[in-house]
Amino acid sequence: MNKIQGSVIILLNSNNEILLVLRDDKNSIPFPNTWNLLGGFIENGELPEECICREIREEIEIELTDINFFKSTIFMIENITFSGSK
């Protein structure tokens, strides 16, 4: 089984509300049409924090300047095919 590393971020506003994004409704992506945290796959040589900054810039066009690493967790998702995965 290939190991794919990803990173997600919990973005809170001043009211402690969490920003979620609605994924596209395409069967070609994992978990289509569901609400999710922002994040993505970690590129080769990239730190989780760098991944998050890149993904936020790509997905919602915001430049993050101050983030704090919270926790690393390992989990497995079975029977999921990632098209174009590394």
Fill in the keyword field for this structure.
single chain; 86 residues; alpha+beta; two-stranded antiparallel sheet; two-stranded antiparallel ribbon; 1 helix; 14% strand
The parts where pLDDT drops under 50 for at least 5 residues are none
How many H/I helical runs? 1
Q: N- to C-terminal separation?
A: 12 Å
Mean pLDDT score = 84
Number of strands: 4
CA radius of gyration: 14 Å
- Helix coverage percent of residues? 10-25%
Give the biggest beta sheet: 2 strands, antiparallel
Which class of secondary structure composition applies to the elements? alpha+beta
Strand content range: 5-15%
Compressed to H and E, one letter per element, the order equals EEEEH
**Looking at the structure, what is the overall shape?**
globular
Strand order of the largest sheet: 1-4
Kindly describe this structure:
- The protein is α+β, with helices and mostly antiparallel strands and 86 residues long.
- It has a domain at 6-60.
- It is 15% helix and 14% strand.
- The chain has one helix at 48-60, and strands spanning 6-9, 21-22, 35-36, 38-41.
- The strands form two sheets. Strands 1-4 form a two-stranded antiparallel sheet. A two-stranded antiparallel sheet has the order 2-3.
- The longest helix is centred in the middle third of the chain and has 13 residues, at 48-60.
- The model has no long low-confidence stretch (mean pLDDT 84).
